[in-house]
Model the fold of this input.
Amino acid sequence: MNEIDSLKKRVAELEKANRELDNVFNATGDIIFVTDKDNVITRANDACVSLLNTKLQDIVGKKCHELVHKLDEPWPGCPFEKTKEDKKTHTEEVNDTKIGPSLLVTTLPIFNEKGEMLGAVHTAKNITEYNKQKEAFSESEIKYNTIFDSVPVWIFYKDRENRFVRVNKIFSDVIQMSKEELEGKSLFDLYPREQALAYWRDDKDVIDSGNPKMNIVELMDTKRGRLWVHTDKIPYRNKKGEVIGVIGFSADITERKLAEETLVKKARDLEIFYRAAVDREMKIKELKKKVQELEAKIRG
Done:
């Protein structure tokens, strides 16, 4: 093989390698372009061409800030400027109305054999939909927190180690501690040991069995005195179905409990009264019988 044929073969190999690189470059849905150390674009993929709504030949050779942002100097906070300073990879969110979508841009430095930085590969991911979902989630979270704190039921979530992970406002008000103070504490930080152990046994039963449990407990409230609480506890599971904690829903049933106690007392009073009345009636019957017997003797 002569030198010309050897060179032609080498050219063909390089062209094939370039085509393969272009295929890889264009296979991803992300926007990719390469710049030299002076911010001049040397290569761009189809996604970049589509985003800028132009032709490849109108992109290559232009400075990215002039072409993309229509600016005479780099975009404020441009990750490539940080990469040029420390020769490290940087990522920044870019929101520019001239581009359209929100982009998460990462710049990766390119070095030659001497370790000198030649430029960078820029990858940009369209995160517009993600940001919309994040915003919607934030709004939902606000609504959720509003509902969570406004329902007239005490709600708490405890992990397997008996620590409060989250509580709502009415629960923290009853315990007379802020939500921030409560979260991270265990029952043993709040109650005497024996009382805390009794509550923890219920939680452990729910965690170990994976079954809900209901109980009624008596508490002491410094403002109201004796307090009765009805609590439903259900297992909290992760995506794998593993029980990782307990969610509790409690309601103040003091008025109902006091009403029940009043009814029981009245029932007991009525029972005593009834027994006394029955005893009196029996006594009256006995006395009448004796009277009749005496009258019969007198007549006889």
User: Anything to note?
Assistant: The CA atoms of residues 22 and 45 lie 7 Å apart. The chain has a mean pLDDT of 76.
